[in-house]
Amino acid sequence: MNRLSDQFLLVGWARRALVGVGVLSLDLLAMQLPAMASENFGEVVSQSSAMEESWTEEVGVSLGGGLGMKVFGSDLDHHFALSKIHYGWNRNRTYFNDFWFRGELGVLNEFMVGGQFDPEGAYVLGLTPVLRYRFNCWERLRPFVEGAAGIMLTDVGTPSLGSVFEFYQQAGLGLEWKQSEALSLAIQSRFVHVSNAGITRSNRGINNLFFFIGANWAF
Q: What number of other Cβ atoms are within 10 A of residue 2's Cβ?
């Protein structure tokens, strides 16, 4: 039994290390992409091409809430209210220009803060890099899809979460309504899964469907 227990702990810590390395790599990529894009490519591209592939900075704020879902091993509903702020970059280049799904790529760093209000009170802090693809289908309405994996601190506790330090993965879609060259209003939905990657034996996880409304400023 001791040998099985040791093996279980080793597997848990290995999974934690792999997820941690993945999250750190994504965050480093988010910070390095704009610098990489602004380098001088010499004779490879012309000055006009370099201008077309520059990056626009963006900051945004959102408020929303999440409804608990009993899926993927989670057997309790956890409901949350959150606020989030992001800072990142949108690449001034259109991908798939000849297709209806043409769009632009964005890389964001997102911080969220809030709490659980049901079944009981608990705090939530999270940090994650986000990869977003925004469609250029219409002039003012711009749908987007995004994905992310990050880290979270929360005292939700057992039986759903067995530690304060957690990992979370999310995928979502939304719609931006452009008000001016700088300002856009946005609505968004996200599916979010939270677990500790086997750090502790109590790891049923939490799953939520979130809805947000907010505003983004480009500069």
A: 6
CB distance 214 to 60 below 8 Å: yes
Q: Do 204 and 69 meet the contact criterion of CB atoms below 8 Å apart? A: no
Residue 130 near residue 146, CB atoms below 8 Å: yes
CATH fold for domain 2-218: Porin (2.40.160)
59-91: per-residue pLDDT in tens?
999 999 999 998 887 888 999 999 999 999 999
Q: What is the pLDDT of residues 105-122, one digit of tens each?
A: 999 999 999 999 999 999
Buried/exposed 113-145: b ≥16 CB within 10 Å, e otherwise: ebebeeeeebebebebbbbbbbbbeeeeebbbe
On whether the CB atoms of residues 66 and 209 are closer than 8 A, the answer is yes
| Strand blocks (E) in the chain | 55-68, 79-91, 103-118, 122-135, 141-154, 165-178, 183-195, 206-218
Question: How many angstroms separate the CA atoms of 173 and 212, rounded?
Answer: 11
Q: Identify whether the C-beta of residue 196 lies closer than 8 Å to the C-beta of residue 169.
A: no
How far is 76 from 164, CA to CA, in rounded Å?
A: 18
